[in-house]
Design goal:
By secondary structure, the protein is an alpha+beta fold. 22% of the residues lie in helices and 26% in strands.
Amino acid sequence: MTKFITPKFVDLDHIKMIQTTRHLGFSKGRFDSFNLSSSVGDNNDHVDKNENLLLKKVPNLQWIFQEHGNKVVELPSNNLIGDAVFTKKNIVCAVRTADCLPILLTNKNMSFVAAIHAGWRSLALGIIENTIISISSNSEVYAWLGPSISIENYEVGKEFYNYFMNIDDDLSNAFLKIDDKYKFSLPIAARIKLNKIGVNKIYGSTVDQDFCTFNDDKRFYSYRRDKTTGRMASMIWINDI
């Protein structure tokens, strides 16, 4: 049985979430062992076995094709290119990551679920704001922030810092200046953006758990740490009521 992280929103019993780890799949070597992406150089047969194992537990899973942009996909759809996905149907929303921040969303009425792939480009381009606007929730929104690279391991330059400051100088709180370099926190930046658009029920990374993909090589893939590596999945769905 594959080891999963199974976060839960308190009092939202019909919302189910799963965060995969790298444990107990079929991939070998750098992709050891539960890699869920066929576009990173892994053996396709191994990836297929991993995906089939996941589908036994989560049968209505729909993948999207991520491109580090700000497009939002509403399921069901024939166009699956985007970095956020939401649905009001009995479909599992999912994103794949290996350092970028996964964000899972629902609301108090449990009328939708959404998954966001929030790397720095998507964050800067407004993927969080676009998702909330697209959904137009009828009740308070809840967010769970999954495993991503931590601020201590995410060093960036002055140009990167200036790029974000030109977008929103409130995001300065997501940076830590060290000499002529900066360190950047994806979860803190996401929290700032979520708070600014009225999302205050935020759980997961930087709140009650520490999920650093770079530091935790036993559980998580990390692109910055390993370059050639696998991808994990973050999934959310509305269970039958």
